[in-house]
Amino acid sequence: MYKISHNMLGLNPKVTTLSGDVAEDERIWGGGADFGFGHTSPMDMPPLGQVAKSHFDGVVTNVSVFLDDIQIFDNGVVCHPDLKPYTLNLLKN
């Protein structure tokens, strides 16, 4: 139950507010992060999966993200100068 099942950054520009639906909230744009713990199916973690009695996700918003000491998000906002133009294009569509 206490094993990490998955983690991810939310980068879906169509999801900008929390809805209460974890399957949608884990994809929230703007520095959202999701951490899943517990059971993982064999389809998602071949060949046997990860057996546990349950599974839960925790969604965190407005995170700051660094990759190899380079900051990408600052409190939920894309701050890397090379990525800002892409961000603006994604959000206006």
TrEMBL record:
Q: Output the superkingdom of the source species.
A: Bacteria
Keywords (A to Z) from UniProt:
Aminopeptidase, Hydrolase, Protease
Q: What is this protein called?
A: Leucyl aminopeptidase
What terms describe the molecular function in GO for this protein? aminopeptidase activity
